């Protein structure tokens, strides 16, 4: 999920995600690990939106779900990511993630997320 490092003085620990983002944590490592996990999924979506041709952007079907301990990213029926998620994800996590996906869709595709089929379910 990420590489753990200490800063040069060894005071803070941080995580380097798969996308080379750094997440500093002091007392709650789980929050940093969640952010690293979300970052990985979001980066994959960003790459897909920028580099994959679809017949119509309005035909996109995006499904992000927590299932059997894995966070699964599925776009148009293809599973692009299946990442282990050993955390309990909350309504707040789902809300944060959905809002971030909304912005990503608007930035990459220049449409509202309401114009595609978007499902995000962390809670079942």
Task: Tell me about this structure.
- The protein is α+β, with helices and mostly antiparallel strands and 124 residues long.
- 34% of the residues lie in helices and 31% in strands.
- It has helices spanning 29-51, 91-109, and strands at residues 2-6, 13-17, 22-25, 61-67, 70-75, 78-84, 117-121.
- A hairpin with a 4-residue loop joins strand 2 (13-17) and strand 3 (22-25).
- It is globular.
The shape, in one word, is: globular
What is the averaged pLDDT score? 81
Distance between the termini: 23 Å
- N-to-C order of helices and strands: EEEHEEEHE
> Low-confidence stretches at least 5 residues in length (pLDDT < 50)?
1-10
Report the count of strand segments: 7
Summing up helix and strand content along with how strands pair, one would put the structural category as: alpha+beta
> What's the Cα radius of gyration?
15 Å
Largest sheet: 4 strands, mixed
Strand percent estimate: 25-35%
**Number of contiguous helices:** 2
Strand order of the largest sheet: 6-5-4-7
Helix content: 25-40%
How do the helices and strands line up, and which of them pair or pack?
Blueprint: E1 2-6, E2 13-17, E3 22-25, H1 29-51, E4 61-67, E5 70-75, E6 78-84, H2 91-109, E7 117-121
Parallel strand pairs: 4-7
Antiparallel strand pairs: 1-2, 2-3, 4-5, 5-6
Helix pairs in contact: 1-2
């Amino acid at each position: 999920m990420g590489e753990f490092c200490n800063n040069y003085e060894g005071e803070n620990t941080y995580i380097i995600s798969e996308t080379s983002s750094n997440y500093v944590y002091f007392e709650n490592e789980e929050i940093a690990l969640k952010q690293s996990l979300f970052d990985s999924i979001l980066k994959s979506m960003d790459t897909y939106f920028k580099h994959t041709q679809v017949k119509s952007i309005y035909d996109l079907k995006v499904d992000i779900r927590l299932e059997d301990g894995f966070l699964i990213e599925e776009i148009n029926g293809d599973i692009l990511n299946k990442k282990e998620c050993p955390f309990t994800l909350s309504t707040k996590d789902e809300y944060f993630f959905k809002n971030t996906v909304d912005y990503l869709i608007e930035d990459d595709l220049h449409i509202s997320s309401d114009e595609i089929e978007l499902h995000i379910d962390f809670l079942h």
